[in-house]
Amino acid sequence: MSPQRRLAILRIAFWAAALFAFVMAILPHPPEVPGAPSDKVQHIAAFLTLAALASFAYPTTSPVYLGTGLSLFGAFIELVQYVPSLHRDSDPLDWIADTAATALMLIFLHWLRGKFSEAVSRKS
């Protein structure tokens, strides 16, 4: 598979996951998640996934830029949840969980890429 095709697939996966996360966040009665994890666990899982997908889909984009964009996306979700007709609860702690999960994943992947490139350069 060509690198361009791989990036296209990863970008489609990222945007599909972002759309899915947004829809689930604004549904008045979202479906039950197996195991009934808490709201914070669901936020953390969603933003760990989004951060990983974003990092692979946009590998040349700064992790700071990706993190800022995902943090703003989390804040936007919380603002939309203030709409009374959605019957959702907006919680600033959800946005903090989103931002922390994003930061942790992006930092981890940045570190991992550094370790991988060190190992490759040592072999050369």
UniProtKB/TrEMBL annotation:
<feature type="transmembrane region" description="Helical">
    <location>
        <begin position="12"/>
        <end position="29"/>
    </location>
</feature>
<feature type="transmembrane region" description="Helical">
    <location>
        <begin position="41"/>
        <end position="58"/>
    </location>
</feature>
<protein>
    <recommendedName>
        <fullName>VanZ family protein</fullName>
    </recommendedName>
</protein>
<feature type="transmembrane region" description="Helical">
    <location>
        <begin position="95"/>
        <end position="112"/>
    </location>
</feature>
<feature type="transmembrane region" description="Helical">
    <location>
        <begin position="65"/>
        <end position="83"/>
    </location>
</feature>
<keyword id="KW-0472">Membrane</keyword>
<keyword id="KW-0812">Transmembrane</keyword>
<keyword id="KW-1133">Transmembrane helix</keyword>
